[in-house]
Write a structure and sequence with these properties.
341 residues; alpha+beta; Nucleotidyltransferase, domain 5; Actin, Chain A, domain 4; 3 domains; five-stranded mixed beta sheet; 18 strands; 27% strand; binds adenosine-5'-triphosphate; binds magnesium ion
């Protein structure tokens, strides 16, 4: 019988996923918390909180506590994780749970500390081991990294894009761009408002991104419902694919160019593994229609989307904690506390 629960947490800017040993994926919810404006109490977390966003309910404030992959509001993140972990771990164990939590490779020491603090702040106070997102993503991609084998991974999330060369369980080269799906959404909403006079809500914007992407989808256009920018009345418009592709261009170009730059700086001993294994795309942004072929064309190297890209980082984090049985979390927890004093 296991007394210490082993947990893997992918605390993302847009989505949070929790895996518990023996139970598997137990939670997959938007990274959101709704607070009562009068009392400050938690009104809802996850899906329920996210559903209130943009609806302008007067009595609650919806907070997205992470920005660009790192904690922007520590109290709100801790309260949200508390709500999630109570749901994911209904029974109390005898010992503090050991948790692997993923962080962007470019996170500063203070930003890393904040992630650990959020997971340690409230019951169940986890003993935390932080893992760089690219290492978790490469591990979760299914590539055999044993013996220090290399992999090139690009994780396009909501707030960050992690581009890294991994050797075994270590990062050899990495760049963390503070842009991803949220920047794409903002660019599409801005362009559609400027060009078509249509103010889009968040869901309508995301649907355009997912159906049209860089390719224009099946029809080369998609219908979107929003509000007329002048008359403020509901309006339906046909949005052409080229408009969405143009809006996405600056973000996509930055990602593809950075991949190309990184490929010119591969350690020679990892070059063969990278060419054979190709560039692997993970994260929700990997599903953007046309992104893989765009990276392939710019960087001149085969590019493929990993299996189930939205859960790739979590799969890797789960494998990492399963392998070490939470021993590292127990030792690094002491280090976090020492550093915080
Ligand atoms: N089919 C799709 N096409 C394009 N984008 C998509 C698709 N599905 C999901 N996304 C986008 O992927 C992003 C969420 O991905 P993911 O869950 O990997 O991010 P995250 O882990 O929360 O963020 P980060 O890793 O940056 O902190 C959102 O911006 C979402 O709109
Ligand atoms: Mg992520």
């Amino acid at each position: 019988m296991r007394f210490r629960a082993l947990i893997a947490i992918d605390l993302g800017t847009v989505n949070t996923l929790v895996w518990v040993a023996g139970r598997g994926l137990t939670l997959e919810e938007p990274t959101a918390i709704a607070l009562d404006r009068g009392t400050g109490q938690v009104a809802a977390v996850g899906q329920e909180a996210d559903a209130l966003a943009g609806k302008e309910a007067q009595d609650v404030e919806v907070v997205f506590p992470l920005r660009d992959g790192v904690v922007a509001d520590l109290d709100a993140t801790a309260a949200m994780l508390h709500g999630f972990l109570r749901r994911a771990l209904p029974r109390r164990g005898l010992l503090r749970p050991a948790a692997v939590v993923c962080v962007p490779s470019g996170a500063t020491w203070v930003e890393r500390r904040a992630v650990a603090a959020a997971a340690e702040a409230r019951r169940p106070r986890c003993q935390v081991e932080l893992v760089d997102e690219p290492v978790a993503a490469a591990t979760g991609s299914g590539v055999d990294l044993s013996g220090g084998a290399g992999a090139f991974i690009v994780d396009v999330g909501g707030g960050t894009t992690e581009i890294a060369v991994v050797a075994g369980t270590r990062v050899a080269r990495s760049r963390s761009l503070r842009l991803g799906g949220n920047a794409m959404d903002a660019a599409i909403a801005h362009t559609v408002q400027e060009e078509l006079g249509l103010v889009l809500g968040r869901n309508a914007t995301r649907r355009l991104k997912m159906t049209l992407g860089l390719t224009g989808g099946a029809n080369g256009w998609a219908e979107a419902v929003g509000v007329d920018a002048v008359h403020r009345a509901p309006k339906t418009e046909r949005v052409p694919g080229y408009l969405v592709a143009a809006a996405l261009e600056p973000t996509v170009a930055k990602i593809a160019d950075t991949v190309q730059e990184m490929l010119t700086d591969i350690p020679p001993d990892l070059a063969e593994d990278v060419v054979e294994g190709k560039v692997m795309l993970s994260g929700g942004g990997a599903l953007l229609p046309g992104l893989a072929s765009r990276i392939e064309a710019t960087a001149g190297i085969g590019t493929l989307v990993v299996d189930d890209p939205l859960r790739c980082v979590l799969r890797g984090a789960a494998e990492i904690i399963s392998r070490d049985g939470g021993r590292k979390a127990a030792t690094t927890a002491g280090k976090h506390q020492h550093a915080a004093r």
